[in-house]
Each structure stands twice: as C-alpha cells, then as structure tokens.
Amino acid sequence: HFLLFIHSYLKTKLGCTKVMSSVSDAKDQTYELTAAHLEALSKIKTLIGPSGYITETDVMQPHVVDWRGIYKGRTELVVYPKTTQEVADIVKICAQGVMPIVPQGGNTSMCGGSVPLENSPSIVLCLSRMNRIRDFDKNNYTMTVEAGCILQKLQQTASESDRYFPLSLAAEGSCMIGGNLATNAGGTNVLRYGNARELVLGVEVVLPDGQILEGLHALRKDNTGYDLKHLFLGSEGTLGIITAAVLKLFPKPRGIYAAYCAVSSVSAAIELLNRARTESGDCVETFELISRLVMDLVLKHIPNSQDPLGQRYQHYVLLELVSTTEDNHELYNRFESILSKAMEDGLILDAALAQSEDQRQAFWSLRENATESQKIEGASIKHDISVPISSIPSFYEAAWDAVLEVEPEARLIAFGHAGDGNLHFNVAEPETGKTEDFINNWDRINEAVHSTVHKYGGSISAEHGIGQLKREELVHYKTETALQVMQKIKTALDPNSIMNPGKVI
Ligand code: FAD
Ligand code: 2HG
Ligand code: ZN
Fold it and tell me: Could you tell me how far CA 468 lies from the centroid of its own chain?
C-alpha cells in the first residue's frame, strides 16, 4: 500500500510513474518513436547481434524498475555491450538518431537515476558484460577495471594479492564500479579513504557523440590542465559512459577491531569519534551511528539477527579501528582503554568488542541490513544528508523537531556515516498506518529536513546523488551560478541531451 501511494503521489506530482500498471501496456504509451529512433534501434540490433540485447518486456522489467520500487520506467531495448568500441558504436548510432541512453550498472540507485523515464523513448545500456580486470599493478598499487565489475569482486581481487580496495557499501554484492564512480559513492570507509572520487586515478569514457576519451592514466601526479575525470565522477551518467577506470589500492589491513557501543546521546557519539581518532593515532576506519528503531527493524525482519547488548538503548555506534602492522595487540589494548574511559565518562553506556570475525560480521549485519529491513517494513521518506560533523548533534535535534511539527507520529530511522557528517535521516510513516496522509506530507517533510540541513551549511545529497528523486529540489539548494555552470557543461558535452535525460538537471 505504501508503494502504491508513492506511485500515485509521484504520478500526480511529476507525471512520470505509473500506478501499478504494466510498463509494457502499449495503450499507455505516452510517446511515439520517430523514424530516426526506429532506425537507431535497428542499427543497434544489427551491430550487437541477438545475443547482445533484449526487447521482451518481462525480461527487461528488472532494468526499468528501481531498487526501491518507486520508479517504473519503460525502454525500447536493453543492450549489453562487451567492449568500449561497442559502447562507442552504440552511442554514435544513438547520437545520430537522437535516441536517449540510460547507462546502468547494478541498478541499486537510491534516487531513480538508473532507470528510464516512462514518458520518453530510450535504451538502457547495461555495462554488466564489461567485467574484465584489465591490469593489476601490485607495485603501483593500482588496478585497471571495466565498468561492469561487481564491487565485491574487486575487493576480493585486491585482497587475494595482499592489497586493499576500501570502497564498501551494503549493495557491494550487486553494484558495479561504473555505477559507483558515476554516483561518486560513499559507504562505510570514507572517513579513512575518501569517497569513490578519491579512489580513482584515471577513467575511460565514451562521450555523448561516441568519441572515446582515453584517460586510463595510472599516475598519482598529473597536472596537465583540467582534470577531466572529475567531470564524469558523480555525473550520474548525464555526461558520458564510464567504461573503465584505474583504481587506487592500499596496503591490506592486518587487524580490524569492531565495537558495538550504546552511546548516551548523539553528541556523546561525536565526542567518542573525536577521542577515538586522536587516541588511536587516527586508526578509525568506520564510525556508523545506528538509532534504536533501525535495530528494531533489523531484529524484526532479518533472520538470525541478534542484539549484541543486553538492554535497549536509544543510539548505537559501530566503531572500527584498523591496524596495518602485524603486531596489533597494542591497538586492541588501546581500543579497550578508549572504550573504558568513554564508559567512565558517561559517553558509552554499554559496549561489546568483537572477539572473532563471526562476531564482527554479526555487528555489520545489523548495520548493513538497515536499508533492506526498512524496505520490508514499508519504505520511508529518505534524506541522505550531510552537515559538518561537529553540527550533527544540533542538526539531529532541530531536524527531528521540524519533522514532528509536520507529522507528530512520524518515526525516525536515522543511521549512517556519522564519521563523515553523513546521516540517512529517514522518516517512516506512523505505526498507526496513516499512509495516505503521510505521503501527502512528503514535500513538507522533505522541506522540514532539507531546510534544516541548509541552515547548518549541509547537503541534501551526501552520497546517493540526485537522479530523478531530488532533481526538482536541487534548484532550491544550489546557487543560480552553480546551476548555470552545470547546465553549460551539460550542453557543451551533450547538446541533444541524450545522456540519461530527466536526471540531475
Ligand atoms: P546504478 O544504480 O546502475 O546507476 C547509478 C547511476 O549511475 C545512474 O544514474 C546510472 O545512469 C549511472 N551509471 C551507472 N553505470 C554507469 C557508467 N558505467 N557510466 C556512466 N553512468 C553510469 N550508496 C552510497 O553512496 N553509499 C552507501 O552506503 C550505499 N549503500 C547502499 C545500500 C543498499 C542496500 C542499496 C540498495 C544502495 C546503496 N547505495 C549506497 C546506493 C547505490 O548502491 C550506489 O549509488 C551505487 O554506487 C550504484 O551502483 P550501481 O552499479 O548499482 O549503479
Ligand atoms: C547505507 O548507508 C545506504 O546503508 C542506504 O546509503 C541508506 O537506506 C538508506 O537510506
Ligand atoms: Zn549510506
């Protein structure tokens, strides 16, 4: 029911989704294909051959519906190129026929960026078959990979050669590196290693006219003019298609220690972060805040989940320290003393320090299943926000007060990367189930959270991007000048707007 209301809400508001009807229903088609479109489709089919594309509506379904089940688009064809040259040839055909292209990786976007619109023609270009590791240079601490490599596979490849690729997020088993780079993904290790943008030395991109921009440089220093790769990192497929990238690797950690801590308040959590960073010699790899409702949902919906602490608390932190040296007892002992001191000082109310890899994984399962369990509970109005780390406690309070003014019975599902100043400040409908009223308040709830974010100098999209979900809101929170510069870049590279139209700007 919740999704049904979201569909109808978005349909009324944006005119771009369907209310539970089949996307294949021809009579619902709201656009017509031109002769140029038909020619482009036919040329793509001939170029790639029958094993490289699909057109059957039911088989294409997973490519046109987003992970959250909010956006349902339609497409004429899904194509799976195997090489950069094939991508370039497809894009050239599309440029000639002015046929829009939606680049797609694992389709785990949180903001409807990876699925086509419902009311305009497009093809989906899925990178999943471009999944080779082209080069692994252990001594240069780099690997050159194709866009369709699954993130988890890249982490494993690095690890097998005693190296570390630190990008990590709950969707890592299905998201692809091209999608990670196109969204400048964050995840749980940003505090120590930076977000996806900071893990890239070079990219290869197919531009909207079909030219290949060769930029697979494995250099840590290169100041030869504008650094073009940054245009494409975080551009959500609106400026070109990333086909390959050179990724930075790091020494593999020798010891990882995880603690699940109940903290006395959000501000105690931030004080704990400060202490952990300074007192560990800046060895904090992860600092994730988890509110009680998140724990409740995971315990309710995810089999075999267990609360590591005996009692209920309001806020938790999953804190990890890493050591890159073999002898890591010293760090473990320091971790224990940081925790006991924080307990003496009332910052921590209770804590469990993982004694085995299984225990550590069990802690992570509580955190990583936050999104999945929310989905099972009935979706929520998500706010992927960031503010300066020091402002998190006062932001948290102010934003929640503002939401309660709109919907006094709303439930707060707050969690995420507090160590980066990034919270998933998600608002769930009241338990009493006034779904329709709640959804009708969508704009007001967004406004309550986002205007508070703005007041604290924050961002309305810390890591998920803009996609379709926040496109309308972006104009309220970016300056006129910034929007103009973005538009100029878009027009310069993609004058016919064939790259992922209807997304970002
Ligand atoms: P897709 O969803 O397929 O695409 C995302 C965007 O990139 C789209 O706009 C698409 O058009 C574009 N794109 C895809 N591939 C290319 C390409 N090769 N070239 C150009 N454009 C391309 N995100 C975070 O940042 N941090 C998290 O912690 C996090 N956790 C998540 C947890 C769960 C359970 C889920 C479902 C999602 C999570 N996400 C998170 C969001 C999502 O996983 C990331 O945005 C991810 O980087 C998207 O990768 P993907 O391969 O699925 O890309
Ligand atoms: C995470 O950190 C993701 O797990 C998803 O960014 C956040 O569900 C969400 O809002
Ligand atoms: Zn996140």
Answer: 14
- The tokens of 228 are what? 């073009």
Which residue type does 393 have?
P
Residue appearing with tokens 């990583």: 368
- Give the H or E element holding residue 445: helix 442-455
Q: Write out pLDDT tens, residues 197-252.
A: 999 999 999 999 999 999 999 999 999 999 999 999 999 999 999 999 999 999 99
- What is the Cα–Cα distance from 102 to 224, expressed in whole angstroms? 31
Q: Atom of ligand 1 at shortest distance to CA of 371?
A: 34
133-137: strand order across its sheet: 133-137, 142-146, 241-248, 200-206, 212-213
The Cα-based distances of 4 to 21, 262, 294, 470 in angstroms read: 11, 37, 23, 20
Identity of residue 158: A
Q: DSSP for 285-351?
A: EEEEEEEHHHHHHHHHHSTT---SSSS--SEEEEEEEEE-SS--HHHHHHHHHHHHHHHHTTSEEEE
CA nearest to 308, candidates 356, 241, 268, 380 = 356
CA of 389 to the centre of ligand 2 (A): 18
Q: Which atom of ligand 2 is nearest to the CA of 374?
A: 8
Residue identifier of the C-alpha nearest atom 2 of ligand 2: 416
Nearest residue to 336 (alpha-carbon basis) of 254, 258, 255, 253: 258
Kindly give the distance from the C-alpha atom of residue 429 to the centroid of ligand 2, in angstroms, as a whole number: 18
The length of the chain is 505
Instruction: List pocket residues of ligand 2, CB cut-off 6 Å.
Output: 170, 370-371, 374, 382, 416, 424, 426
Q: Output the CA 126–ligand 1 centroid distance in Å.
A: 13
The C-alpha angle 398, 371, 451, rounded to 5 degrees, equals: 25
The answer to whether 257 touches 320, Cβ cutoff 8 Å, is yes
How many CB atoms are located within 10 Å of the residue 443 CB? 14
pLDDT at residue 7, as a whole number: 57
pTM: 0.95
Count CB neighbours of 372 within 10 A. 15
- Rounded Cα distance, 260 and 373, in Å: 19
For the chain, residues with pLDDT lower than 70 are 1-29, 379
Rounded-to-integer distance, Cα 501 and Cα 233, Å = 17
Provide residues with CB under 6 Å of ligand 1.
Answer: 67, 102-110, 113-114, 127, 147, 169-171, 175-176, 178-180, 182-183, 185-187, 236-237, 241-242, 371, 463-464, 467, 500, 503
Cα 256 from Cα 253, distance rounded (Å): 7
Residue 347, Cβ neighbours under 10 Å: how many? 21
User: Looking at this protein, which amino acid is placed at residue 492?
Assistant: A
Q: How far is CA 492 from the centre of its chain?
A: 27
Pocket test for ligand 2, best of 67, 70, 110 (most atoms within 8 A of CB): 110
